Here is the input.
Amino acid sequence: MTTLPSPPAARRDPATIAAWAILALAIGGFGIGTTEFAMMGLLPNVAEGVGISIPEAGHVISAYALGVVVGAPVLVAIGAKMPRKVLALGLMVLFTLGNFSSVFAQDYTMLLVSRFIAGLPHGAYFGVAAVLAASLVAPTKRGHAIAMVMMGLAVANVLGVPLATYVGQQLGWRWLFVMVAAIGLVTIVAITFLVPAKKAHPDASIRGELSALRRGQVWLTLLVGVVGFGGFFAVYTYVANTMTDVAGFPSTFLPVIVGLYGLGMVAGSLVGGRMADWSVMGSIYAMMGFISVSLVIYAVSVHIQWMALIMIFVIGASGSMLVPSLQTRLLDVSPGAPTLASSLNHSALNMANALGAFAGGLVITWGWGYTAPALVGAVLAVLGLGIALFSGFLDKLKPRPTAHNEPHTVVPSRAAD
Here is the structure.
């Protein structure tokens, strides 16, 4: 660990401590993003290796997503009394073991179980990491800190996924999970040495975390993610077919297209964090409208190759811009239970993945073509905007005691656990 900041002055500097801690947490996001998205490019290899059909191999991805949805509330509730650093470490250990077990899966059932286990800590980890990152910076910089944690997920789509896909194709699909398990081990070491250790909050409890589920604004924010973000996934799921069949790109050009999409996600994370610090609800309104317009432009112009390349970058950016604001909004509307609410955001996004893929596949089945999912996504984004506006309207009817840019009376103390 010779690269760690060793000078005493650096260790005492809060900004340096926060930067290194956020980097450590982002490495975990990089590993999670790699294992989640690289599987899509290795499905034929997995199907052949385990002796199953392509649709059955697709169920392996569904098993991971189901693990995300189930694991977020369950693991956060179980770890409610733990210091947040300890909980983050435990979740990363489970993630690493789940991926390592996938290396040795000899049949379909074993692979399904191992992928479900690997998915369990996904949402909980991002939720805990977001709360940890927010606790290390001023309240007015929470959005940026959360975006930097999520940057690991975005960078995975630019570097981790292409590399893991290539390695998996050349050396065998099991090497994907070897790589991810190694990233998990690096994350465990990084969190151990770089994230400050603090005692658990004395009032922390399972009941306290579950109290978030009684708040209507938490459910409305999650619904914005499920519905509004569905459009993002409606396009991403069918991007390969759209780019080859509609835009006319050769299949060999797809890695470049996916890379552009990933670069858009990186840019969107950077911008989205700043927007969340400017105005949480304002940025949600703006981004839902922007996503809707972008998807319509994509649908009508994707047959023009240069426009297709521009719009695939824009769509990747627009989706990532929304995530920091949704995450910050959940921290705002769940005082006393930030970790569970923040974790549930990733359950919501995985449900959005399922919704977008299902709705997009439905219109393709109806014969509407590969541009139709983008139009469906635009409608979903408009619906998400409507839900966000309703949530904001309720805020005005019953003003909350703490504003976004004021220090929180509850969240920072819990977030510092």
